[in-house]
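User: quick one, sequence for these tokens?
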């Protein structure tokens, strides 16, 4: 095969298309639209993930904030004995002086609701204590002074019997208020994983 024949075959295989400027602009516009769609989808996905993470941190802070109150009410409210349940039913009946069966049914429902709420509160306290205990262990295992400080700050703000203000925590830890807020945010993100999952 000669070089003329080879050039002829190469030219036949490499067919070139000539596009007008209008066609090039149209292809570029279609490509830009598709790229923009992909970019928007990725951004929306990132925003949804960020929103979920923010919601988990808010929910964690809310649960931690209510920890002391729930624990205090659990100390005051022990399980009702059968005699107390009966007494509560009759007291309820006396107060309403309505149809005895209807009122007794309502009082049973009220007692069951109170017991269910108490069990939910106990479970909530258990979950918070377990999650913060796991966070404490994580902080101790890292050996980082900063991680240990974050746990102490979280504990002072939410878990200790005496609630401390951010200013008091900042004084104790010898850091600024801004650092305490930042540390609490980081700690709550970690506790949220233990408390609410990923």
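Assistant:
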């Amino acid at each position: 095969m000669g070089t003329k024949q080879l050039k002829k075959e190469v030219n036949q295989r490499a067919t070139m298309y000539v596009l007008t400027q209008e066609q090039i602009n149209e292809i570029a516009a279609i490509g830009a639209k598709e790229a923009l769609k992909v970019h928007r989808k990725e951004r929306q996905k990132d925003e949804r993930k960020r929103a979920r993470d923010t919601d988990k941190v808010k929910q964690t802070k809310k649960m931690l904030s209510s920890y002391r109150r729930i624990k205090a009410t659990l100390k005051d409210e022990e399980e009702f004995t059968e005699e107390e349940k009966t007494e509560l039913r009759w007291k309820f009946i006396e107060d309403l002086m309505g149809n005895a069966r209807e009122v007794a049914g309502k009082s049973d429902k009220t007692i069951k609701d109170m017991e269910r709420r108490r069990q939910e509160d106990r479970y909530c306290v258990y979950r918070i204590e377990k999650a913060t205990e796991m966070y404490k262990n994580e902080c101790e295992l890292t050996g980082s002074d900063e991680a240990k400080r974050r746990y102490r700050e979280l504990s002072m703000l939410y878990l200790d019997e005496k609630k401390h203000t951010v200013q008091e925590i900042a004084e104790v830890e010898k850091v600024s208020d801004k650092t305490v807020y930042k540390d609490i945010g980081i700690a709550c993100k970690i506790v949220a994983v233990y408390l609410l999952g990923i």
